[in-house]
Amino acid sequence: MQNSATSFSEQILEGIPEQLPPVKPYDNSINHAPVRKDILNKEEKKLALQNALRYFDKKHHKVLIEEFKTELDTYGRIYMYRFRPDYKMYARPIDEYPAKTKQAAAIMLMIQNNLDYAVAQHPHELITYGGNGGVFSNWAQYRLTMKYLAEMNDEQTLVMYSGHPMGLFPSHKEAPRVVVTNGMMIPNYSKPDDWEKFNALGVTQYGQMTAGSYMYIGPQGIVHGTTITVLNGFRKIGKSPKGNLFVTSGLGGMSGAQPKAGNIAGCITVCAEVNPKITQVRLDQGWINEKITDIDLLVKRVNQAKAKKEVVSIAYLGNIIDVWEKFDEANIHIDLGSDQTSLHNPWAGGYYPADVSFEDANIMMAEQPELFKEKVQESLRRHAKAINKHTEKGTYFFDYGNAFLLEASRAGADIMNNNPTLGREFKYPSYVQDIMGPMCFDYGFGPFRWVCASGKPEDLQKTDEIACQVLEEIIKNSPEEIQQQMADNIQWIKGAQENKLVVGSQARILYADAEGRMKIAEAFNNAIENGDIGYVILGRDHHDVSGTDSPYRETSNIYDGSRFTADMAIHNVIGDSFRGATWVSIHNGGGVGWGEVINGGFGMVLDGSMEAHKRLKQMLFWDVNNGISRRSWARNEGAIFAIKRAMENEPNLKVTLPNYVDDALLNGL
């Protein structure tokens, strides 16, 4: 394997090699994406091959066409495995990248972090998380993109079409260095099978959220949000987490954060997962404490943990339905319940049916897709039935934004509200509806994150200390309405180092409002200018105040009828692009499904300059307050409070506020 800085640089600058590299053997030790169903007809398969071969000189077509045909027939996609680089995939210190501009080098760093074997769910298929959240569709796209970034100057912008690097275009220094779109389909072509078809053709991809926008930081990215959700879930039911039980499922990608968050919150967590490889990875990483494969032993262990009021996370290697049913039979009380399997992707590995082995399910998925769909829907009905038994005994169940309730409803499960109101169609709430929306998003608090581009742990520690100091200063004058949010985040950042949250890049996440984000970023920029730390890359999850329009998750607590619109996400990315973001992205898809959400993100490089100082203030203010203003117009009380406060502090902000209609007038109609 080539690991020297020189050979790494040469391979980056080479892009798509002139001579074919040797065929690489299929590595069974890697967690691979499931085989996709055979959806293309004969003519479409020819088109898929034409599309793939256009990346290569004609002299190689005779060899590659057979190879790519075999990949398409075997895996349902053309990944171009032969072109996987020989160097190790990880986020290198920014100075190791062969680039003409540090902004481009920062993007290269983030791309490689998304594909780090410790971070990515299916690294050889370029999938970061969620079963189908791709950074690119094939290795030619990766190689060409990295070459363009290495060649780019600060008056060019790289345009990305769903994983395909369209090219470098003239722009200017203040323009984004990269503009990314993923899966932006004509609305009538956003059904699940449309993704299967057009992705197999190589013309679009599912970028999820931070996967296709190069801003994923490993499961840490959702640990904080999950910790807040679990803490407030217990607050909601009037219980301490200590000695009480949280049951959920999913350990791949972002869902792997759940047991770690349970430990930080201080409860007993049982998380079921059917994939043995990813379960072992999470055990090796320390994100779970124990692994159990026998359901009776699981019952015994949970009873023991309850009796001793332990703080422990237990992975059950098996189907979550067995856990819900067995705990009902054994009369184990579940305090909080949820699910974070990838039900946005139910027919292609996001959710596995009960009573079918993991291996057999993967075969059925590819060879008998209709039978697989029947089995999944049958399991969803059974899953919901088991949950209903527990909620009748007092369990608080919430949908964790993975489309569980939506897909269960489509399967005919007993999951609908007997007395539905607008936005409350289901028996159970989305966690955004009851916790994250009214407590965090409406007030402008969301998942602000940063990466230390030097790769030095000591830089991360310094940024943690800076962020903590900033928040402790802000909280002194914070209004009562946001004191709890501030206190939770100060507690989080103080424990960040000891919780060992870093997987991949030296990154951190922290829920902050616009004031917090701007002041933390400003303090970072000053520290860079003073030489205390190296460059810092700012970003956020798309799962935030303004970035995402998603009627069953991010905007599920919007009740004025506009939750199915996507104006906010589009305005967000446009506004970020001309206010100083280093790169911007807009996607169809995300955690709740293809065609179910539009979401946008950004990255911003801080280099200690006055220009960065100006950009961070303009962009971060807009990036948050765009969403608060939309939420205030929907008559969300927290958002009305927050936007009025923002207008008091910024004279150039003037937002249209709603007038309330007397209920007596409405009731008289």
TrEMBL record:
It is an enzyme of class 4 (lyase). Its cofactor is NAD(+). It comes from the Bacteria. It catalyses: 4-imidazolone-5-propanoate = trans-urocanate + H2O. Keywords: Cytoplasm, Histidine metabolism, Lyase, NAD. GO terms for molecular function: urocanate hydratase activity. Its EC number is 4.2.1.49. PROSITE patterns: UROCANASE. Residues 89-215 form the Urocanase N-terminal domain. Residues 441-644 form the Urocanase C-terminal domain. InterPro entries: Urocanase, Urocanase-like, Urocanase_C, Urocanase_central_sf, Urocanase_CS, Urocanase_N, Urocanase_Rossmann-like, Urocanase_sf. Binds 1 NAD(+) per subunit. Pathway: Amino-acid degradation; L-histidine degradation into L-glutamate; N-formimidoyl-L-glutamate from L-histidine: step 2/3. NAD(+) binds at residues 130-131, 208, 273, 400, 591. Residues 218-435 form the Urocanase Rossmann-like domain. Catalyzes the conversion of urocanate to 4-imidazolone-5-propionate. This is Urocanate hydratase.
